Amino acid sequence: MTDLLRPFSVLCLACMAALSVQAQGLRPATSLSLGSVAARAMQSGPQQADYIVAVVNAEPITRSELQQRVLRARSQLSQQGVAVPPQEELARQVLERLIAEKSQLQLAAENGVRVEEDAIDQAEQNVARQNQIDVAELRRRVQSDGMTLVRFRAELRDQIALTRLREREVDGRVRVSEQEIDQYLQDQRNNVDLAGLELDLGQVLVAVPEDATPEQTKVLQARAQNVLERARAGEDFSALVKQYSDGMERSSGKSMGLRSADRYPTLFVQAVLRLEKGAIAGPLRSPAGFHILKVMDKRSPGLPPTTTTQNHARHILLRTGPQLTQAAAVARLAEVKKRVQAGQADFAAMAKELSQDGSAKDGGDLGWAGPGQFVPEFEEVMMRLEPGQVSDPVVSRFGVHLIQLTERREAPLSVREQRELVRNFVREKKLEDAYLAWTQDVRGKAYVEFREPPL
Questions:
Q1: Contacts of 338 (CB under 8 A, 6+ apart)
Q2: Three-class HEC string of 363-388
Q3: Exposed end of the chain (fewer CB within 10 Å): N or C?
Q4: DSSP state at residue 193
């Protein structure tokens, strides 16, 4: 549903509005422009009768339609804390958005894209769920905002149609090869942003006294070289630290901790800049002596993380329907929460008794799970919990949940998992480029006529 109702950004609006008039298939004979028509429409007096401001392949866009969309765009931008463009500029962007939207909807109709009433019902339920309200309350709010339910459902239908068209025309054609993943990773490693680089380094310091003779220095260098070779051979680095290091880390064997690159000596950063996690560098000579470094962790913008946050949770699920309304399910689980918090009931026991899914037999235990394994409405609430904490009732597409977080941990990501993260990132970027090119192509093929407002 996030994609379905994702608002069109001002940036994208501006990009499309910047297309040349010649490329957009406008009538050559007219001297009118998108900007002038939008501006005049917004400047017209409120008592003036409605009229057509533009025609897209014989389908009109009216002044009232444009004004309503401008008001909504202004409200959305304000709620998001985004600077609202001047009125004429905003009207121009919204008019261009309407033109692009209508041309895509016409293409959807030509290609046989249909939207069933059940799909609109589901979309309406999803919007209500995202706002933590029921459908009846959603409809009340829609009407209080001045929109009819017929118009609201029509816009849901249009958004579903546009999403299905995009999936057919754009999404299904974008692929990411293994070579593209390799190239992306190589590019990121070769263009490290020191400002965002974080390192966790382990160190063995073989100290060299200030008054050491060349012979003593050579012996100490040989000792450092021996430590390096043993580390590269796979010996436990922590044990080597405890046995050989002359630094403060010797007593614990621990690394220096994850910190930004600017908090490490430049000598260290330059030595490990091109190395991956687990690699060994050295011996490095400094005034203090010889250093052997191990990259315990490395985090850089653009590179996939090496660890992920996993949550161990359990839940109670009540499915809603004719026998149990959403409001009744919320009230029942709110009472369960009170009893658990008061020590009058055990969460796992209540899950076995009440939960209506396969986890009930295990006391609602969902096991360890990483990001994206649960539906967004469930995961967002779970991520805000502290271990041992119980949520308020949560509405999802499956029913109403009560969630208890039992544990949270950082777990390593396998190489395969890291590559999948990169694949998703690269695909999203390719999708953005492909979608923009496709929208420009559809818009460019549309016949658009701008109309002068009546006197």
A1: none
A2: CCEEEEECCCCCCHHHHHHHHHCCCC
A3: C
A4: -
**pLDDT digit of tens for each residue in the chain (455 aa)?**
333 233 333 323 333 333 222 223 233 333 466 666 666 666 655 546 788 988 999 899 998 888 888 888 888 888 878 888 888 888 888 899 999 999 999 999 999 999 998 889 888 888 887 777 888 899 999 898 888 999 999 999 999 999 999 989 998 888 999 999 998 888 777 666 666 788 889 999 999 988 889 999 999 999 999 999 999 998 999 889 988 898 888 877 888 888 888 888 888 888 988 788 889 998 999 888 999 999 998 877 777 777 888 999 999 999 988 888 888 999 999 999 999 999 999 999 999 999 999 999 999 999 999 888 898 889 989 999 999 999 999 888 888 999 999 999 988 888 888 898 889 888 988 898 899 899 999 998 999 888 876 65
Residue 32's SS3 state is coil
Q: Could you say which DSSP state residue 449 is in?
A: E
- Kindly list the domain boundaries of the chain, sorted by start residue: 10-110+170-174+433-450, 193-299, 307-412
Angle, helices 34-43/87-110, rounded to nearest 10 degrees: 110
What whole-number distance in Å separates Cα of residue 219 and Cα of residue 242?
20
Phi, psi of 366, deg, nearest 5: -105, 0
Contact yes or no for 83/14 (Cβ under 8 A)? no
User: Side chain identity at 71, as an amino acid letter?
Assistant: L
Provide long-range contacts, Cβ within 8 A and 24+ apart, for 163-170.
Answer: 163/3, 163/4, 164/108, 164/113, 164/115, 165/104, 165/107, 165/108, 165/111, 165/113, 166/435, 166/438, 168/111, 168/113, 169/438, 170/431, 170/434, 170/435, 170/438
Helix axes 214-232, 237-244, angle to 10 degrees: 160
The architecture (CATH level 2) of 307-412 comes to Roll (3.10)
Helix (H) or strand (E) holding 401: strand 399-412
Q: How far is residue 299's CA from residue 319's CA, in Å, rounded to a whole number?
A: 42
Q: Calculate ∠ Cα 8-73-107, nearest 5°.
A: 45
| Sole residue written with tokens 């590019």 | 187
Q: Is residue 379 a contact partner of residue 371, using CB atoms and an 8 Å limit?
A: yes
User: Domain 193-299 is in which class?
Assistant: alpha beta
